[in-house]
Amino acid sequence: MNQNEGNNSMELQNLNFTRKSNFLKILPIGLGLFLAFNFSVFGQESGSGLYYYDGGIKIDLQLEPGIIAEFPKNNHGIKNIKNSVVIKSDSSATPLKYYGNTTIWKSNSGGSTISLSKNLNQLNNSSFSPILTTIKGSQLLALPGNIIVELSSGFSATQSETFFARQGLNIHQKLDIPGRNIYEVITAPGIVALETANALHGKEGVISSTPNFWREMVSK
């Protein structure tokens, strides 16, 4: 082998080593992005990573597996449980509890209650939410829709409307609490309400932002 052939051989070896080295550098980055995306999706569907803010305090939430809440719109009660869209979606579903017009259902489909609630909210005149708790076995929570937001007292009514409009939101009503600038803001029911409340947390002029939770009445 002459000197030129030897040099060419060394250059090819160096090029192949560089390509392998670059590939090994890229591989963990791509794998990391893939895993991050999939764990993010899985986390939302499984209920891990759910939380809300109570003032400035972050409260972790967890899903109650297979349990959803049904809230008839306009306070019209469910006249016939057998006609509920829940039964039509899952024929083995059973009502667990009744709280006035609110029905707590146990679904036996085995799927995510986040997805189930989203699908049911597109089909019926009732509102649906997965059931959440802050501690296993504690008071049941659900998301019938809307959030409660307190803005700085320096915001006028017009400024408040403008602020929410810029977020793509509309005011349902201002709460009659003297000296406070608190609004009930319209959102869809379910996890969307939780996500909307969290998205407003920390924005300039926002003192607090929390879902308008339905809370189980627990006898003492």
Report on this model:
With 220 residues, the chain is α+β, with helices and mostly antiparallel strands. The protein has three domains: 1-46; 60-139, 2-Layer Sandwich (Alpha-Beta Plaits); 147-215, Alpha-Beta Plaits, CATH 3.30.70. It has helices at 3-46, 85-89, 113-121, 157-166, 191-200, and strands spanning 51-54, 57-60, 62-72, 94-99, 102-106, 126-133, 141-142, 147-151, 171-174, 182-185, 206-211, 214-215. The chain has a four-stranded antiparallel sheet, with helices on one face. It is elongated and about 55 Å long.
Mean pLDDT across all amino acids = 82
Shape: elongated
Overall tally of domains: 3
Number of strands: 12
CATH architecture descriptor text of the largest domain:
2-Layer Sandwich
The proportion of residues forming helix, as a percent range, comes to: 25-40%
Short description:
Helices cover 35% and strands 28% of the residues. It is of the alpha+beta class. The strands form 4 sheets. It has a 4-stranded antiparallel beta sheet, covered by helices on one side. It has a 4-stranded antiparallel beta sheet with strand order 9-10-8-11, covered by helices on one side. It has a two-stranded antiparallel sheet with strand order 1-2.
Task: Map the helices and strands.
Layout: H1 3-46, E1 51-54, E2 57-60, E3 62-72, H2 85-89, E4 94-99, E5 102-106, H3 113-121, E6 126-133, E7 141-142, E8 147-151, H4 157-166, E9 171-174, E10 182-185, H5 191-200, E11 206-211, E12 214-215
